[in-house]
UniProtKB/TrEMBL annotation:
Name of the molecule in the record: Trichome birefringence-like N-terminal domain-containing protein
Gene Ontology, cellular component aspect: Golgi apparatus; membrane
Membrane topology field: Single-pass membrane protein
Sequence similarity: Belongs to the PC-esterase family. TBL subfamily.
GO terms, molecular function: O-acetyltransferase activity
Region: Disordered, residue numbers: 296-324
InterPro entries assigned: TBL (IPR029962), TBL_C (IPR026057), TBL_N (IPR025846)
The species this protein was found in: Daucus carota subsp. sativus (Carrot)
Pfam annotation, one family: PMR5N
């Protein structure tokens, strides 16, 4: 079953329940939906079922054995943190003796000398807030053709890298290519000439840049897993304009289409394919394409339950607290990312799928 397509299927109800509880000590409060007062729990009980096979529940012992003496690094934005904390919670509860020693963003499991690392890199490429040409100080300048040096120096130490990016391209920024400002998002003061690069195109270029840097790195021989664009489910506005996902308690029966998600996903896949053609080293690259499957999961976000303070307690005259329809509740759908990730690792290290 090594050729089973993991990414097309359906969500089925599983009364077995989640892989851990919301008492996990590394769980970020903003993703602790039950701890923040969410009244329903059914969103925790849906499992992903590929069309041609079954996706096994995450096996902590198998994962740690496969990763014996190895380092897995989550590199990217806050959605990368969301997935890393999900993995840590799965391992923490199932292997209570392996209380990972935390040093900055490193978690070490002594039984198998396995290291889990998280490195923050919002765009995965180089950025600075220093002034550049006609872009002022304070504005993020994103260099689309230069990888983020903050993590590239550590790449040879990593056996598995999971990359997460895309959502920061909706933020105010200037885009630089070949040392020239060619575009921006929510910023463009030069009315005398048109922007040549918008945020979608910029994202595609950045994906090709970072993956080409990994695929041509002389000292990188590991496995790079590109987790595809994570869909959000804001309805009636964006995160800062009153967008909501309140009241969604189970997966949608139809694909929840989002034009921005679709085009960002396409640019990411295109960038991945272009980088694969330039690959020169012995590393491996795999696209973990979760976008379609998670487009159904409008029920899996914190929504208004991103804080222990009830949303209705917003002070009079103060704008209501933005909902979170981008990150994922824990426990919740995000745990499936790690089950899919484990299958990708199994295929690479064992040469066969762990599917039934």
């Amino acid at each position: 079953m090594s050729d089973c397509d993991l990414y097309h299927g359906q969500w089925i109800y599983d009364p077995t329940g989640p892989l851990y509880s919301n008492s996990c000590p590394v769980l970020t409060q903003m993703q602790n939906c039950q701890g923040n007062g969410r009244p329903d729990k059914e969103y925790e009980n849906w499992r992903w079922k590929p069309e041609q096979c079954d996706l096994p529940r995450f096996d902590p012992e198998k994962f740690l054995e496969l990763m014996r003496g190895k380092t897995l690094a989550f590199i990217g934005d806050s959605v990368a943190r969301n997935q890393m904390e999900s993995l840590l919670c799965i391992l923490w509860q199932a292997i209570p003796k392996n209380r990972g020693n935390r040093r900055m963003h490193r978690y070490y499991f002594r039984s198998t000398s396995t290291m889990i690392v998280r490195i923050w890199s919002s765009w995965l490429v180089h950025k600075t807030s220093e002034p550049f040409d006609f872009a002022p100080a304070g504005l993020d300048k994103v260099f689309l053709d230069a990888p983020d040096e903050a993590f590239m120096e550590f790449v040879p130490q990593f056996d598995v890298i999971v990359l997460s990016s895309g959502h920061w391209f909706a933020k105010k920024s200037a885009y630089i290519l070949d040392n020239k400002i060619l575009g921006g998002q929510l910023w463009w003061p030069d009315k005398s000439r048109p922007k040549k690069i918008n945020n979608v195109k910029a994202f595609g270029i950045s994906v090709e840049t970072i993956l080409t840097s990994l695929g041509t790195h002389p000292n990188y021989t590991g496995l790079a897993i590109v987790r595809s664009f994570s869909p959000d489910h804001y309805v009636g506005g964006a995160w800062d304009t009153g967008g909501s996902c309140t009241g969604k308690v189970k997966p949608s029966t139809e694909l929840v289409e989002n034009g921005f998600t679709n085009i960002m996903h396409k640019k990411q896949v295109d960038g991945f394919n272009l980088a694969m053609k330039k690959k020169t080293n012995k590393s491996k690259m795999r696209l973990m394409d979760i976008t379609e499957a998670f487009s159904y999961r409008h029920d899996g976000h914190p929504g208004p339950y991103r804080s222990p303070e009830p949303p209705e307690k917003t002070k009079p005259g103060k704008k209501s607290r933005p909902q979170d329809c981008l990150h994922w509740c824990m426990p919740g759908p995000v745990d499936t990312w790690n089950e899919l990730m484990l299958e990708v690792i199994i295929r690479e290290y064992e040469g066969t799928a762990g599917l039934s």
